[in-house]
Amino acid sequence: MRYIEDIRDGDAIVGHYFCKDKQTLKSRAGKTYLSITLTDRTGALNGKVWELGNNIQSFEAGDYIKVDGSVSTFNDELQLKINKIRKSMPGEYQMYDYIPSTRMDVDEMYDELAGYMRGIQNPFIKALIGNIFGDEDTAQKFKLSTAAKTLHHNYAGGLLEHTLSVVQLCDFMSGRYKSVNRDILIAAAMLHDIGKIWELTGFPENGYTDAGQLLGHIYMGAELITREAGKIPDFPAQLAMILKHCILAHHGDYEFGSPKLPSVIEAFILFNCDNLDAKVFAFIDIIDKDKTPGKWTGYNKMFQRSIRKTE
Predict the structure, then answer these.
(1) How do 64-74 and 43-49 pair as beta strands?
(2) How far is CA 45 from CA 6, 82, 143, 206, in A?
(3) Which has the closest alpha carbon to 152: 282, 302, 271, 286?
(4) What is the pLDDT of residues 85-113, one digit of tens each?
């Protein structure tokens, strides 16, 4: 199989890919064409079908398809001009080729996260975390979920990998400042993105659920704390409110989807650690995937700059 990460400008491609998205559009000249998004476990590639003739068989988004076409660069991104398409037949593709996964050991990461759970001293927070992650279905989804649709850790196991990294950063920060409540910070770090197990679908679709579209992971994470804290006798209302505030504020700004701004030290540290891990991951990922010759990447829209490659 020819993986998308290995495709280069000028390549001729014949292979099977997952059709994540399909749109029928019109050019400025009024010509109807198809725009599709092809994916595998290594990435995504936009494809265009300009000639809708007999070589283009019926298919839909969510199908595995066999494509025949040529690759060129348009607006600094690779694009596949597709000449032939048909639905893939059973046995022509293997599912694991289309599910991007963490390179880390999932069980080892979860064991390390469990160590942080055991280290929580506050009995109410310890019970809350134990109830949430003690649910087998929740724990399994947490291990296998992605942390994002596109921006960072966007692969199976990515949520666990990102969460553990944020917990590690928050643990370090908690020892630097005496006013920080470590138990609150560590618990909030563990739970800050847990709503994503209900917000995002599994692979290879990697899209949004109805709940994800209508509610979002921030609300669902805060709602989870309300629900589970309510099952613990005498759980302090103030403590539940602080934990929920950390979830509601962890994107840091209204512009980026936080309904509240970080207003306690734990929420402020969580926001910065979450943002740091996501941005550093994206920074490294850009370098790893850039195919521009020389020491610098091409201009990146997210960071609004070219990036010096590591040597």
Answers:
(1) unpaired
(2) 11, 12, 27, 15
(3) 282
(4) 999 999 998 877 887 788 888 999 999 99
